[in-house]
Amino acid sequence: MTIQPIRIQFKTACESLGVSREALHHKVRTDASFSRSIREGDTKQAPVYFDYAELVDWHNSQKQSLAVLEA
């Protein structure tokens, strides 16, 4: 049995999606369907996380959208 993480760090989200930090920032700002970030604290240095299940759902919906467009 594999345990999936509940949330992942910003850096890990970038690596998982294969995008740069700036590309992920852009995605958060412009794509309403993208997972909302979770900030632990009020300072700029506070760590930022994403819900793992939401990222996977978003990725799967993007794949389905591309499949529909190609068909």
Detail the topology: elements first, then pairings:
Blueprint: E1 7-9, H1 10-17, H2 21-30, E2 38-39, E3 48-51, H3 52-70
Antiparallel strand pairs: 1-3, 2-3
Structure explained in plain terms:
This protein has helices at residues 10-17, 21-30, 52-70, and strands spanning 7-9, 38-39, 48-51. The protein has 71 residues and is of the alpha+beta class. Strands 1-3-2 form a three-stranded antiparallel sheet. The chain is globular. The termini are far apart. The model has no long low-confidence stretch (mean pLDDT 91).
Write a concise synopsis of the structure shown.
This protein is of the alpha+beta class. It is built from three helices and three strands.
**Total number of distinct structural domains:** 1
Beta-strand segment tally: 3
- Tell me the overall shape: globular
- Based on the structure given, which CATH architecture is correct? Orthogonal Bundle
Q: Largest sheet, order of strands side by side?
A: 1-3-2
Largest sheet: 3 strands, antiparallel
Radius of gyration: 13 Å
The residue-averaged pLDDT reads: 91
Question: Which spans have pLDDT < 50 for at least 5 consecutive residues?
Answer: none
Give me the secondary-structure category: alpha+beta
Strand content: 5-15%
Top CATH class: Mainly Alpha
Helix segment tally: 3
